[in-house]
Design goal:
This protein has 490 residues and is an alpha/beta fold. The protein is 20% helix and 29% strand. The strands form 5 sheets. Strands 2, 4, 5, 7, 8, 9, 10, 11, 12, 13 and 14 form an 11-stranded mixed sheet that branches. A hairpin with a 2-residue loop joins strand 7 and strand 8 (83-100).
């Protein structure tokens, strides 16, 4: 969607470039803005002086080279014959993009209070919140609300220093992540929260993919509003939110649940701001689809599109695997976790954390424990990106049949959190089931089960889960998994 560029009397920076921001170290940053059409614009940054010229529409762009990380605040200015625009308190460090749906959006103020008051006064962390100017809650926008949001591009962007006040309405997962990484590395961290509740992968994927990928054939054009390939709950919420807008005669109003809308309005404006990597916590709105392969394809396509936008084919993605939820109306979360794991296993620049133990013991889709999610993401990134020694998850390395037993072997010694046998293992005669609970025994880094139920096994695939299997060293949980036990080689 196009946003009209103001014909500024003096230079203005694009709305994503603001005071208090962090710019990505070692990157070339294409700084953008507007000025009087045809005027020469001079940018000054840490001794660099770069000149460019505004086009006929007033838009200008200039590439600035970022050096090493620098926690000393600097000034970025743009000057022409009409005046000067100045951005202050700018740091150089690592910029991380945290995105997804409501569990990533879930704010610090919503987190269950801990025993000690958290200290959020961290000058080395800067927060940018991408805020949707309407809502996706029950109820309808008024035509006036819609028109005002449309005029502003539906989203606002705001950079702030991290402190006890600014962090309250910021993503809890992203805030805990950023604080941990900054303290462990000493590098200034810019953390961008670009998340919106209820949104599916389709909304975060560009039209170029929607229009060409076979997996999206059923939701092209206006077809998504009645397509069984698009979640029925989401279609209903769109109709509810836009009811009065449509009644007022607005033609083809947009909604953030629509295919490509969030990519266009919330992500593409950030493409000029290089990032170190992406934290992705999403899936609740796609997990009602039982088709594992379809969800894996969608996730891979979205990751590829984001990498293309940022001009980095190896841009790291770190996924939050969906947690447990005790809701029989959500029977396919296990299949979605496997889709996430499949994408991570196939791409060396994608990894994921396990949160199966951190979810809800009821039907609450918003588990309030967000600090451990942020810290697990931070530890994963500290190990993969910053080379730190961090705790490891136990992963299945092989499964086999030994006589009358199935043996599932893990990457390291295990224990159970309560001293009882491992819970959540099931066996079946066929991959498609039916699966029945198996009596499992823990032996070092192996879990042993009777083979009487069949050679196919799975771990923590259901909806009402009570996992107790963790690494003996790190206490991190074992990932949900499944497999077929091959006969032991003689």
């Amino acid at each position: 969607m196009g946003i009209a560029l103001p014909l500024a009397a003096q230079p203005e920076f694009d709305r994503v470039f603001q005071s208090n921001m962090v710019l990505q170290r070692g990157a070339v940053v294409p700084v953008r803005g507007t000025a009087k059409p045809g005027s020469e614009v001079e940018l000054t940054w840490k001794g660099q002086v770069v000149k460019t010229r505004a086009g006929a529409d007033g838009a200008w762009k200039a590439d600035l080279r970022m050096g090493k990380a620098d926690a000393k605040p600097s000034t970025l200015s743009a000057r022409d014959s009409e005046g000067t625009a100045v951005l202050e308190n700018v740091l150089v460090g690592d910029v991380w993009l945290a995105s997804g749906q409501s569990n990533m959006e879930f704010m610090v103020s919503q987190v269950r209070p801990g025993k000690e008051k958290a200290d959020w006064n961290v000058p080395g962390v800067r927060l940018m919140k991408v805020k949707y100017l309407l809502h996706t809650k029950p109820g309808s926008f008024t035509p006036q609300q819609y028109a005002a949001a449309e005029k502003q591009g539906f989203f606002s962007f705001k950079w702030q220093e991290m402190n006890d006040t600014t962090v309250r309405d910021f993503s809890a997962v992203a805030a805990y992540f950023a604080r941990r990484v900054q303290r462990e590395t000493g590098v200034p961290i810019g953390i961008i929260c670009n998340a919106l509740g209820g949104t599916g992968m389709e909304s975060w994927t560009p039209e170029s993919v929607i229009d060409t990928a076979p997996v999206y054939e059923g939701i092209r054009g206006d077809g998504w509003q009645s397509s069984p390939d698009f979640d029925a709950w989401m279609r209903g919420r769109v109709k509810e939110n836009l009811r009065r807008v449509v009644a007022a005669g607005v033609q083809n109003p947009v909604h953030p649940f629509a295919p490509a809308m969030l990519y266009n309005a919330a992500l593409e404006p950030l493409g000029c701001m290089p990032v170190k990597g992406v934290l992705w916590y999403q899936g609740e709105s796609n997990a009602d689809d039982p088709d594992l392969q379809r969800n894996a394809i969608k996730l891979s396509l979205m990751i590829g599109a984001w990498r293309k936008l940022y001009g980095n084919e190896k841009l790291p993605f770190f996924l939050v695997q969906l947690p447990r939820i005790a809701d029989p109306k959500r029977p396919h979360w296990g299949a979605f976790r496997r889709a996430q794991a499949q994408v991570a296993d196939a791409d060396p620049d994608v990894d994921l954390i396990c949160t199966v133990d951190l979810g809800s013991t009821d039907a609450n889709v918003h588990p309030p424990l967000k600090e451990p999610v942020g810290l697990r993401l931070a530890d994963l990134v500290l190990g993969r990106v910053y080379g730190k020694a961090v705790p490891r998850y136990p992963r299945v390395t092989v499964s086999r049949r030994e006589g009358a037993h199935l043996v599932v072997q893990f990457s390291e010694p295990l224990k159970t959190t309560d001293g009882k046998p491992p819970r959540g293992f099931e066996t079946a005669p066929e991959a498609s089931g039916p699966y029945a609970p198996a009596s499992a025994e823990l032996r070092g880094n192996r879990v042993v089960m009777p083979a009487t139920g069949g050679c196919y096994w799975r771990y923590n695939e259901g909806t009402s889960l009570d996992p107790n299997l963790v690494s003996k060293k790190s206490a991190l949980p074992a990932f949900p998994a499944c497999g077929a036990a091959a006969p032991k080689q003689q």
